[in-house]
Write a structure and sequence with these properties.
112 residues; Udp-n-acetylmuramoylalanyl-d-glutamate--2,6- Diaminopimelate Ligase, Chain: A, domain 1; alpha/beta; single chain; 5 strands; 5 helices; five-stranded mixed β-sheet
Length: 112
């Protein structure tokens, strides 16, 4: 599964469309950014409720390809701009992190 497939596969809204469209290797769900830095892997998708530009900074350090913001949280423009510069996709969903994690896991498991 590639980054461009996330919107249709998970039924989520694409917010920041200027990204590297590469193969997704893994996923990680978390809101504590130090935990994300320590445990998320490069080539993954981050599912979080942390909608601010620090999330983009962490994603860039780790090599996260895309961020899915759960619970239909508003996404500030400075976060979108930071993601555009880093070429990281941002998506938004009305669903919870739990539901999104299950959906992403199912999609990644079936594409392997």
């Amino acid at each position: 599964m590639r980054v461009r497939d996330l919107s249709e596969a998970l039924g989520i809204e694409l917010i920041q469309p200027e990204f590297e469209d590469t193969e997704i290797l893994d996923g990680y769900t978390g809101d504590l950014l130090s935990d994300v830095m320590a445990h998320a892997s490069s080539g993954s998708v981050l599912i979080t409720i942390q909608a601010h530009k620090n999330t983009i900074a962490v994603a860039g350090l780790v090599g996260i390809l895309a961020i899915i913001v759960a619970n239909e949280r508003p996404i500030p423009e400075d976060m979108v701009e930071a993601a555009r510069k880093e070429k990281i996709a941002i998506f938004r969903s009305k669903e919870s992190q739990f539901v999104l994690s299950g959906k992403l896991y199912a999609q990644l498991s079936s594409s392997r």
